[in-house]
Design brief:
single chain, 514 residues, mainly alpha, 2 domains, five-stranded mixed β-sheet, 23 helices, globular
Length: 514
């Protein structure tokens, strides 16, 4: 197996290196501080849970080869962290922000293999200006956060392999491929686009088709196979769920689909593009000097062909598959390489006059998103549209304990966000949502009551009035023993103006049999 020649990375003069901002001189330290600040902020904001957080809190009560219609890796990681920190807002925040930090770290390592320090920092840190990553990921994403981290890690693994095609690096690429497929299914589109692009470039094709490729395939296959067998048994439900999200419209819809794709692309890339254009201005239009040495001349065509393949796939989904719905977080892992591509294509920006402006824009956007996240519950309350983070979960848990709930009997809730939030307050109690989706409400409640009786436990049945499926209490009470009537709790919401309507909960607590 032959090794490809590689040029040395361009080095900054000592004076220039000393002129780097502090955030660039010690990027790992600042990255850890950024992640820790967001964890602390999430803990301070609320003890209530958002949609995906609650879902993970419930799913991570047990290990499985798949959950709902999603791959299992995120839930496995959450299960492991819950074993250390307990099911809590802390464990949820630590996992999410560790993965976000890994995303920036992997992209920084990939960029540093291709670019000088300042441009490498820009390529990684400026991903915060991709709104789906810099903003939406702070609020309610789980699988997308994980697959984006793995995608960034795959770029890093491929670049390391190209630098030195050793068996361990073929195995690393296979590991990343497996982790990607165990993270979120849209990783398959990323892998296909990257694979086709790499096979079309002579230098990368020579490495991928070398004898070590079997190691990549073997590692990926062994790690993915158990989940693949689970997926085969749940293929129809998974396919239906994916099709519903894409909003496939067989009868026409191509114009709507192309328009939706364009809008989603712009919302994903426009902020970064506009700020980069403002910062560097005419430097974007100047081509690199003809004698400029490149440590990886294969990277420019690889990136261009990868992005073209992704765009062609999306257009094909519209024209052939009649897809009419696209969301920013679906594009997030596929286009997180956009900043790296820009600086690889224009390496002269490293010394362009607009560098300080761009650094300021990156830090400004990161700070803006942090402050906006901190203000989010108060803004929602002030607007009269309180959300999940305004729910008084701590006060609710205290009231339930005061009413006699023992903290270990099953919690049966009408929605998964309430069930998940109570699970973080009563770690010893299993929590279940009977929302009528997987099973009819009556059948779900009856099953949980039977399990509680068999275990010699009591049960807590609870719902909140502002998120209550139609006839939920009527359906639930149809299978309850006689004499059980729901009790009302009204508690002030958090971060809302005085005089706002309280949060209303109704519950039935049935103690364990004596």
């Amino acid at each position: 197996m032959s090794s490809l020649p590689s040029a040395s990375l361009p080095q900054l003069p000592a004076a220039a290196a000393g002129a780097l901002p502090a955030v660039m001189r010690r990027p790992l330290l600042w990255l850890l501080a950024w992640a820790a600040a967001h964890v602390a902020l999430r803990l301070a904001l609320s003890s209530a849970l958002r949609w995906d957080e609650a879902e993970q809190t419930l799913w991570s009560q047990h290990l499985a080869w798949g959950y709902g219609t999603q791959p299992p890796l995120y839930t496995w990681l959450q299960w492991g962290l819950n074993a250390v920190l307990g099911p809590s807002v802390l464990s949820l925040a630590v996992l999410k922000h560790a993965l976000l930090a890994l995303t920036y770290l992997f992209m920084g390592l990939a960029a540093r293999a291709l670019l000088p320090p300042r441009a490498a920092w820009w390529a990684a840190a400026s991903m915060v200006m991709l709104p789906a990553l810099g903003w939406s990921s702070l609020h309610d994403q789980t699988h997308t956060v994980l697959v984006t981290a793995v995608t960034a890690g795959t770029w890093w693994a491929l670049i390391r392999l190209m630098q030195s095609p050793r068996p361990a690096r073929y195995a690393l690429l296979g590991l990343m491929a497996a982790l990607g497929m165990l993270s979120k299914y849209n990783f398959a589109l990323f892998a296909a686009a990257l694979g086709l692009a790499a096979l079309s470039v002579p230098a990368t094709r020579a490495v991928l088709l070398a004898r070590g490729l079997w190691i990549t395939a073997a590692v990926a296959l062994v790690l993915v196979l158990p989940h693949a067998l689970w997926l085969f048994d749940h293929l129809q439900a998974t396919a239906v769920a994916i099709t519903d999200k894409l909003e496939v419209r067989p009868a026409g819809g191509r114009i709507d689909g192309l328009g939706e794709l364009l809008v989603t692309l712009l919302s994903t890339l426009l902020l970064w593009t506009l700020l980069a254009a403002w910062a560097f201005r005419g430097a974007w239009l100047r081509r690199p000097p003809a004698d400029a040495a490149s440590p990886a001349p294969w990277m420019k065509p690889l990136l261009a062909r990868y992005l073209a393949a992704v765009l062609a796939a999306f257009v094909g989904m519209v024209l052939v598959g009649h897809v009419t719905e696209f969301k920013e977080h679906w594009l997030q892992p596929l286009f997180c390489v956009w900043p790296l591509a820009a600086f690889v294509w224009r390496p002269q920006l490293e010394s362009a006059p607009g560098g300080r402006r761009f650094t300021g824009a990156v830090l400004g956007v990161a700070l803006l998103f942090f402050v906006a996240t901190a203000a989010y519950p108060w803004v929602a309350g002030w607007r009269g549209r309180p959300g999940e983070l305004n729910q008084p979960i701590v006060a609710l848990a205290e009231q339930l304990r005061a009413a006699g709930y023992d903290g270990r009997s099953p919690v049966i809730a009408a929605d998964h966000m309430l069930a998940g939030a109570l699970r973080t307050r009563f770690a010893a109690a299993p929590a279940i949502d009977c929302d009528g989706d997987a099973l009819p409400v009556a059948a779900c409640v009856a099953r949980q009551l039977a399990a509680a009786r068999a275990a010699g436990l009591g049960w807590l049945l609870i719902a909140r009035d502002d998120r209550l499926p139609t006839d939920w209490w009527a359906d639930a009470q149809a299978v309850l023993p006689a004499g059980h009537e729901p009790q009302l709790l009204e508690l002030p919401r958090r971060a809302v103006p005085a005089g706002s309507a309280p949060a209303s909960y109704r519950y039935i607590w049935s103690p364990p049999p004596r």
